[in-house]
Amino acid sequence: MAAMTFGSILVVCTGNVCRSPIGERLLRQALPQMRVASAGLAALVGQPADALARRVAEMNGVSLEGHVARRLTAQVLQEYELILVMELAHLDHISRIAPACRGKALLFGQWLARREIPDPYRKSVDAFEHVFALLGSASQEWAQRLSR
Hints:
Layout: E1 8-13, H1 19-30, E2 35-40, H2 51-59, H3 74-78, E3 82-85, H4 88-97, E4 105-107, H5 125-147
Parallel strand pairs: 1-2, 1-3, 3-4
Helix pairs in contact: 1-5, 2-5
């Protein structure tokens, strides 16, 4: 694969309060030169990050302070050069709302054997820790590839 050069990344999940805010902040840490944001397919618009997501992120040195959930729209998708989603179903959703953007959308877990990142919403601390670890590994993989 040829070298990828991107200046902006959008991280997408369902509610934009658990996975995508964590993924966004991890990528911002790893790729400070890039514009990174997040959105949700069925976003809990205006809500802060989930309390358990904030706690687990904080325990791992990542702040979700100031996060405000927003809805994914075709317009938002067009503003970013790379779109990273948590599940294959999210790719289908993007194909429906913005077919022209489907080609720049990949799984966040693309470099973890194309692994989907499960939704920890309303689950245990263990579920959040597992998801944080997956997002951490995946963001490091993206950072290595996008920094070349």
